[in-house]
Amino acid sequence: MEIENQPIHLPLLKEKQVSLSIKREDLIHPFISGNKYRKLKYNIIAAKSQGFNTLLTFGGAYSNHIAATAYAGKLSGIKTVGVIRGEELVEKWTENPTLKLASAHGMQFKFVDRETYRNKEKLEVLSSLKEEFGQYYLLPEGGTNSLAIRGCEEILTPQDASFNYVCCAVGTGGTLSGIIRASSPKQQVLGFPALKGDFLNEDIRKFVHKENWTLQTEYHFGGYAKVSRELISFINDFKRNTHILLDPVYTGKMLFGLFDMITNDYFVAGTKILVIHTGGLQGISGMNAVLQKKNLPLIAV
Ligand SMILES: *Cc1c(COP(=O)(O)O)cnc(C)c1O
């Protein structure tokens, strides 16, 4: 599947003589957001060819990966089980838009306390899940494994080699790893982590053996799914000026960071930048519910 690059025209870009295009992976599907589709593709093929009829994976209550897995499972006729962090959700998961959608697409949930969730890769947890749900194909939290990275290599096309920089938001680093692997050696790949953590460099090095990439670690806004008024207003301005909606967890932080770098003359005149819009838009209604409770401005959709 080839996705078009949309050129962006904004006064700042003109002033700095930097060109910017956005690869609209968010348009792949309304429920399976961009990179999650890429990450699931070869895993579902593998699960089916190995004879599994259930796919089991892990996530938090607003996880794009959970939403995407549920829908992909429905499309490809494989049962899905979501092991969700937070026992308290047993009572109130129907108030959560992500989980409601995943359930509507046939996902079965297992809510576990935080300690069990931390130990989710341990044999005793995995085998008790096997007792409850039968044999399953296991996908890690966030969906990152080598088949997922293979899928993400397909985000870039040969024509994209004409860009000097390729930018992508980072959670586990799986998507970025695929992009680095598919990048041309003359390109620089910039990853924008959506969370704090020094482990990401090492995680990514497990999957890539190139040096043409860096992580821009200053734009996590305090941690995973943390937001500020400034971020929300950037997302709303960006939507008003380009008609492109960004999500507050990943792509909003990446573009905020990239615009900060452009403002501070990180890029020389004539630089051509490609940004990957990985999607994540299903998470906005959940985030807006949280913002509303805190009396903060909402993301305009
Ligand atoms: C999950 C996700 C990411 C991060 O992907 P990783 O492969 O975990 O680094 C980026 N953007 C969006 C919208 C996502 O949902």
UniProtKB/TrEMBL annotation:
Swiss-Prot/TrEMBL cofactor(s): pyridoxal 5'-phosphate
Keywords per UniProt: Pyridoxal phosphate
Chain positions with N6-(pyridoxal phosphate)lysine modification: 36
Taxonomic superkingdom: Bacteria
GO MF terms held by the record: D-cysteine desulfhydrase activity
Keyword Transcription recorded: no
Active site per database record: 63
InterPro entries given in the database record: ACCD_DCysDesulf, TrpB-like_PALP, TrpB-like_PALP_sf
Start and end residues of each Tryptophan synthase beta chain-like PALP domain: 8-279
Similarity annotation: Belongs to the ACC deaminase/D-cysteine desulfhydrase family.
Protein name from the UniProt record: 1-aminocyclopropane-1-carboxylate deaminase
